[in-house]
Design goal:
Blueprint (H helix, E strand, L loop, with lengths): L1 E5 L12 H11 L3 E8 L8 E5 L2 E7 L8 H21 L6 E5 L6 H9 L3 E6 L5 H5 L8 H15 L3 E4 L2 H10 L6 E4 L15 H6 L7 E8 L6 H10 L6 E8 L3 H11 L4 E5 L3 H8 L4 E5 L12 H7 L4 E5 L5 H4 L6 E5 L3 H13 L4 H15 L2 H14 L1
């Protein structure tokens, strides 16, 4: 089977990886051909570069900035990306049996319609429910033009997608209840990765490099630092723990709220918090290997169930998870209630402190919980089984 995958993010270097590269590397191993189209944000015009990565052919198409730029430039380039991708497909006469794509963005409808008119299977990997997430965060208003425009594009996206893969049971339930997807094959396709042979260690060199004490509870948050993560609550948690000598919190990532966290740490002289800009995958995994517990933060206002992919790296490194999320996220059911971690609502500071105190008191239980976390990853979020599930869906349609 020949598969085209449209995406905004795909690693080009073989030693780097993300959930998409793990997935399509495995699909190639199953005997299928994969072509990836991704943006080259460093250029607005010019030649489209192509190269191979683990037998996946990658087209890097000049698009201009889609991230880390102002809203006007980001908006224009995001709207143009659909035209540019479709032009590339036609110009290069790319042959395919199935077209796969993920959200964000929701603006691939011209490409999807093209695939549908040529009787190709269209498969959406639903990673983001937009624009409702912006309504939840107060960025869009339901009566506003932007919401109505993007809601129209979202409805189109679902309409022309033959298969829709949702991240979790709650995610799928939300989609079905709030959208007319009766003619689609809606299924659960969890985020997944290829489990690695990560060794837990207490490497003093890593501890020294990042100024982390060795004899305390070591917590880490890794990932995006933006509005969806409810950074105001994260800051409240840091301030509530500022005088604690029995724990240390490491924050790794980038995003619009990075400076806000940095300012808080400096202003309040938080000696038990260390903020690190985003690391490459190898360095990040090495850092996770010396931690005791991984943190997840999501804004408490969300009405859409999210399942952040960053949780998988924690599980791969045998870390228990402490998730501070909205009430509708099923992380608390799918992960935490299985004995692999803890959960609090992300506006309940008292619950957070109580849970932290309990974790410190029962620190000896964390390795057992970490083993359960790793076992769940292997059994439920292993890319080897998820890739077969995707191929089964494609062949059935």
């Amino acid at each position: 089977m020949n598969i085209i995958f449209l995406t905004l993010v795909y690693p080009e270097l073989e030693f780097d990886s993300n959930l998409y590269s793990d997935l399509f590397d495995q699909i190639v191993e199953l005997g299928h051909n994969v072509t990836v189209i991704k943006p080259d944000e460093t250029r607005v015009y010019g030649k489209c570069y192509t190269h191979q990565r683990n037998n996946v052919k990658i087209y890097a198409l000049p698009t201009g900035k889609l991230t880390k730029t102002n809203l006007i430039i980001k908006g224009i380039n995001t709207l143009l990306i659909d035209f540019r991708y479709l032009h590339l497909i036609k110009k290069n006469k790319l042959s395919f049996d199935a077209m796969m794509y993920s959200t964000p963005p929701i603006t691939f409808t011209k490409c999807i319609k093209y695939a549908k008119t040529h009787n190709k299977t269209t498969f959406l990997l639903l990673k983001d429910i937009f624009p409702q997430n912006c309504v939840d965060l107060g960025i869009f208003h339901r009566k506003g033009f932007l919401y109505r425009y993007f809601r129209f594009k979202e409805v189109e996206l679902y309409k022309y997608s033959k298969i829709i893969g949702c991240m979790s049971p709650a995610n799928m339930e939300y989609l079905v209840q709030n959208n007319n997807v009766s003619n689609q094959d809606v299924c659960i396709i969890p985020n997944s990765l290829l489990p690695k042979d990560t060794i837990r260690n207490g490497n003093n060199d890593i501890l020294d490099k990042y100024q982390i004490p060795c004899d305390v509870l070591k917590l880490i948050y890794g990932g995006n630092l933006g509005k969806p993560q409810g950074i105001s609550f994260l800051i409240d948690c840091l301030l509530a723990l500022k005088d604690r000598k029995d724990l240390f919190i490491t924050i790794v990532g980038s995003g619009t709220e990075y400076k806000k966290i940095e300012k808080c740490i400096t202003k309040n002289k938080l000696d038990n918090v260390y903020l690190i800009p985003a690391l490459n995958k190898t360095e990040y995994i090495n850092l996770l290997s010396i931690m005791d517990i991984g943190l997840i933060f999501l804004d408490h206002r969300f009405t859409i169930p999210n399942f952040p992919s960053r949780i998988l790296d924690y599980m791969d490194c045998s870390l228990p998870v402490y998730a501070c999320t909205d009430k509708v996220s099923d992380i608390k059911h799918e992960i935490c209630s299985q004995g692999a971690g803890f959960w609090s609502e992300s506006n309940d500071i008292k619950s957070f402190i109580t849970t932290i105190n309990s974790i410190v008191e029962h620190k000896d239980c964390l390795p057992k919980m970490g083993a359960i976390s790793r076992k769940l990853l292997i059994e439920q979020y292993n890319v080897k089984s998820i890739s077969r599930l995707i191929i089964d869906q494609l062949e059935a349609n």
